[in-house]
From TrEMBL:
GO annotation, biological process: phosphorelay signal transduction system
Residue numbers carrying 4-aspartylphosphate: 70
Any one GO MF annotation of this record: DNA binding
One Pfam family named in its UniProt record: Response_reg
Organism expressing this protein natively: Aureimonas endophytica
Record key words, sorted: DNA-binding, Phosphoprotein, Transcription, Transcription regulation
Protein name: DNA-binding response regulator
Domain Response regulatory: 21-135
Amino acid sequence: MLMENEAATPARAQLPQGDRSLLLVDDDKPFLQRFGRALEQRGFDVTTADSVAEGVAAIRAKAPAYAVVDMRLSDGNGLDVIEALRQARADSRTIVLTGYGNIATAVTAVKLGAIDYLAKPADVDEVISALMHETGNRAEPPENPMSADRVRWEHIQRVYELCERNVSETARRLSMHRRTLQRILAKRAPR
């Protein structure tokens, strides 16, 4: 039997019965607040954290049923939060959000217990769909996948960040001429 509040909010009725606790970890505070409110409006009991330390502390206080974790955080890597959640609660469902997607971190996130890996910007409905997606079923292919130029640009940006914004070191690691790399870095991101 549905309560009046649940009948009035169709999105809430779509959530499975039981624990609706969700941990949202991202170091972009405006995004964290907006996304947290949107998830609360859809029936989740949201706890927010803006660092690895806060995320792990929230998990120790009460391990949530769901989590949405950014990969790059100001004090470390979101994989640490995913691992802490898996150890605290094996049945939790975790989604990784990142602006710097790559295959190696996606594989690591899945091995640590994440059920999906979404590129930013992802909207709330995409995240909820990924959280509620039945395991074992194939996910729908994205309607607007990244272009090959965008994937290349994302990879270059990631290596550039890993090299602490050192152009010479990035060019060496990418086996690319330094001037070519500088021209690529000076351009806007392709679509």
